[in-house]
Write a structure and sequence with these properties.
alpha/beta, Rossmann fold, SIR2/SIRT2 'Small Domain', 2 domains, binds zinc ion
């Protein structure tokens, strides 16, 4: 059924959340018991407040995060989505993930709502560096400013240009596919509803039920994202 919906729609947008990344082996950053950073609460150590008041802890936390992402890589599902974009089957991906895996897998129109951990930039002069600066424990810019990951920290707004582009794409779409998001983080959870209001079909693939399941045209809980995308890709290739 997913293959058929994809084939029929002229503008399809995919929305990915933590579930997409956990299939690459990355822990879910926002879940309380991820074991990612001992007993620390991410909303405290990954915040603008920590950056300003507890910068050493902030550096340690994000260095750990960068190393974690470097240990993982995009999985088959990321590559299938990139292939679908090349073939014109989907028009873009809105993601809540900061690992940069959609871009790494070859997706061009990847709208990273929360930024990317693949880069850091200077708080003072804005100069951009690769996140290997963090792994090499170089936390300061030659200008003396603090380097910070180019991600949205707790306490910050989402990047306005990316957000409005994501809204625009959602308003245009005929098919909106959610992959691995519980749709609880605002304002990201507005996208499926917006798509639905514009008359799009809504598909949700997530291990747990979501608050939007009732609005969806197709809901899949019992399979991994990678499995669903591989099976669908097979059907699309066979022209079914
Ligand atoms: Zn600088």
């Amino acid at each position: 059924m997913l293959a058929e919906l994809i084939r029929k729609s002229k503008h399809a947008i995919v929305f990915t959340g933590a579930g997409m990344s956990t299939e690459s082996g990355l822990p879910d950053f926002r879940s309380a018991n991820s074991g990612l950073w001992g007993q620390e609460n991410p909303s405290e150590v990954a915040s603008t407040e920590a950056l300003n008041k507890n910068v050493e802890q902030f550096f340690r936390f994000y260095r750990h995060r960068v190393l974690g992402v470097q240990d993982c890589m995009p999985h088959a599902g990321h590559f299938i989505l990139a292939e679908w974009e090349r073939k014109g089957l989907i028009q873009g991906i809105i993601t809540q993930n900061v690992d940069g895996f959609h871009t790494e897998a070859g997706t061009i129109n990847s709208m990273e709502l929360h930024g990317t951990i693949q880069r850091v930039h200077c708080q003072t002069c804005g100069k951009v560096f690769g996140s290997n600066r963090y792994t090499e424990e170089q936390f300061y810019c030659p200008c003396g400013g603090t380097l910070r990951p180019s991600v949205v920290l707790f306490g910050e707004m989402l990047p306005e240009d990316t957000f409005s582009k994501a809204i625009e794409e959602t308003e245009k779409c005929e098919l909106f596919i959610v992959l691995g998001s519980s749709l609880t983080v605002s304002p990201a959870n507005q996208f499926p509803l917006l798509a639905k209001e514009q008359g799009a079909k809504l598909v949700i693939v997530n291990r747990e039920p979501t608050i939007m399941d009732g609005y969806a045209d197709l809901v899949i809980h019992e399979k991994n994202i990678g499995e669903v995308l591989s099976e669908t890709n097979q059907k699309l290739r066979n022209g079914l």
